[in-house]
From TrEMBL:
Any single Gene Ontology cellular-component annotation: nucleus
Organism encoding this protein: Ditylum brightwellii
Biased composition (Polar residues): 33-52
InterPro entries, per database record: Calcyclin-binding_UBL-bridge, HSP20-like_chaperone
Designated name of the protein: CS domain-containing protein
Region span, Disordered: 1-52
Length: 226
């Protein structure tokens, strides 16, 4: 090597070596936070899954059985005020109440029943009631002079204009005759009547073919009237 080359080699400046600096990517902190949150959710889900598996496999003997009962009511919205929980449940309650009242109470007034003498015959599937009323065939000629109303557990026979030809008209405060039972001994499917010369025959068709020792159920106001 020549002297000139040696001098040039000795005067060359040393090359700068760049230091290795850490590279920071944008959003790395957010990414770490998301990973932590995701890990938290995963661990929470695993805990719930383990709890549910424990309850399903061991039932009442599970260690976490107390957590098995979940609240099914409406969520609280943070407002302290009365609320209607369910319109449907309220309407159903009203319908059921009205239905039970309709079944338990007849639409007619049993207290106006003033026919106290009658006979009845139990024929197995049906019951016949004989109401003796002299001359009713001639006195009650209109279609609406005799009417019969009934429910599943009651009936009411009403006779109008019966006294219009008799001397008892002046003595009677009302021209209506009525035989009513608010609670029959058993349930009926239907009720009908036939008008004869001196009587009215009522026929009650039973729902069940059972013996009726009386027309009215025990405890009915008309039970003992014969």
């Amino acid at each position: 090597m020549s002297e000139e080359n040696k001098e040039n080699a000795g005067t060359e400046e040393p090359m700068e070596v760049e230091e290795n600096k850490p590279v920071v990517e944008e959003g790395s902190e957010n990414s770490n936070d998301e990973n932590v949150t995701a890990n938290g959710r995963d661990s929470s889900a695993l805990s719930k899954s383990a709890l549910q598996d424990n309850i399903e496999s061991k039932g009442k003997n599970a260690y976490y059985f107390a957590h098995a009962h979940k609240a099914t009511g409406p969520k609280w919205d943070g407002k302290i005020e009365p609320k209607l929980l369910s319109k449907q449940s309220t309407s159903e309650l009203e319908d059921n109440t009205s239905s039970s009242l309709r079944k338990s109470m007849p639409s007619f007034d049993i207290h106006k029943s003033n026919i106290t003498s009658y006979a009845f015959l139990d024929e197995g599937k049906k019951v016949k009631i004989y109401v003796e009323m002299e001359g009713i065939g001639e006195r009650c000629t209109n279609d609406d002079d005799i009417t019969l109303s009934h429910t599943e557990s009651s009936f009411c026979l009403v006779v109008k204009n019966y006294n219009s030809l008799g001397e008892e008209e002046k003595k009677e405060k009302s021209d209506e005759k009525c035989l009513a039972f608010g609670r029959l001994h058993g349930s009926i499917q239907s009720a009908s009547f036939r008008k004869k010369k001196d009587r009215v025959i009522i026929t009650l068709l039973k729902k069940e073919e059972k013996e009726w020792p009386s027309i009215g159920a025990k405890g009915d106001p008309m039970h003992e009237m014969v």
